[in-house]
Amino acid sequence: MVPIVSNGYSIYFNQEGYVSLNAYLKENTFSKIFILVDENSNEFCLQNLLPQLETETVIEIIELEPGEENKTIETCVQVWNVLIELGADRKSLMINLGGGVITDLGGFVASTYKRGIPFINIPTTLLSMVDASVGGKNGVDLGGLKNQIGTITNPAMVLVDSDYIDSLPQNQMRSGLAEMLKHGLIAKKTHWEKFRQMEHIDFADFDDLIRESVEIKSNIVTQDPTENGIRKALNFGHTLGHAIETYFLENPDKTSLLHGEAIAAGMIMESFISWEQNLISEGEFNEIKSVLNGIFDRIDIDESEENRITELLIHDKKNEYGKVQFALLNGIGNIKVNQIVENESINRAFSNYKS
Q1: Which tens digits make up the pLDDT trace of 54-76?
Q2: What percent of the chain has pLDDT over 70?
Q3: What is the dihedral of CA 315, 114, 9, 68, to 10 degrees?
Q4: What share of residues in the chain are helix, strand, coil (percent, to 5)?
Q5: I need a surface site. Which of 27, 109, 229, 262 has the fewest CB within 10 A?
Q6: Contact criterion met (CB below 8 Å) for 121 and 103
Q7: Which structural domains are found in the chain, ordered by start?
């Protein structure tokens, strides 16, 4: 499968990725290699990676507890201290083997340790393959608020091996599908249409769908690496979705949501707002809502919770001068960024979502 060339690095697929990884290890003399994993990627994925590495460089494994609740500065401090204890220097390499939490946090740790050491992302969930590992965004949550602290630093390479998702539970697969659906909605209608009837998807060709989704994101990021313009399109569904995700993560009476579950709800509501603003037709909105509701369970949100979720919007990273800004659909396959939305429209979007 042909690699995708992004901003100063390449995204490789399946076995060709290990060939490129070993060539990179031979071209560079690293003092040590640190592989960051969580309990899941340590158990299910590390055994596949280690035999593939052709190197005599010392390899150290750093394991974290899984889950978004551990994507914090406190966890970073622990990893930085371990790196110091194990003698990591500026000639060390970090390989992030895991889902979005590992690639986000690992990239942030590497890009700040001793002012930056090289890192490689090897995503092991569908979500991290098509989204988190690509684009150079690294970061952690702060006080429960998503991705408030971070850097934009590109990895040395990304290696997407679809064999890793064979052990994923269905809810994790659906979480990744949310981002793939988003890519079609914002940039490529034909990509969206491939998912309209899930029962007809040929999962034997799923590698091609993954690559196409990665290519859509990479093309957008290449145009706007620092998110001053079109890269904001990738936030479709995330303004409300991140607020919902944060609320459920921070509320002890709620069961935490997977990222894709919250983003699916956000996409339905932000599609409703797009329809209200005459950016998409009623038929397009109904199609989007029908497809997403066919894949994701509706999230139970009562009226009092709507207000608390809406209050979280002020912390969204796209906001400027205190104004909440949305990326809204402008027809399926197109997007308008920097759209101001009134609270009344947001309230109607919640009501429609629950109907």
Answers
A1: 999 999 999 999 999 999 999 99
A2: 97
A3: -40
A4: 55, 15, 30
A5: 27
A6: yes
A7: 4-167 (3.40.50.1970), 225-354 (1.20.1090.10)
- Beta strands of the chain (E only): which ranges? 4-5, 10-13, 33-38, 59-64, 93-98, 119-123, 137-142, 145-152, 157-160, 325-329, 335-340
**How many angstroms separate the CA atoms of 92 and 116, rounded?**
10
For residue 323, pLDDT over 90 is answered with no
Provide the pLDDT for residue 321.
46
- The whole-model pTM stands at 0.94
Q: Which of 69, 198, 202 is nearest to 144 (CA)?
A: 69
Closest CA to 104 of 38, 164, 24, 14: 38
Q: Can you read off the two tokens belonging to residue 274?
A: 């797009």
pLDDT band at 317 (very low <50, low <70, confident <90, very high): low
Q: Looking at the DSSP assignment, which residues form a beta bridge with residue 61?
A: 35
What's the rounded Cα separation, in Å, for the pair 14 and 208? 12
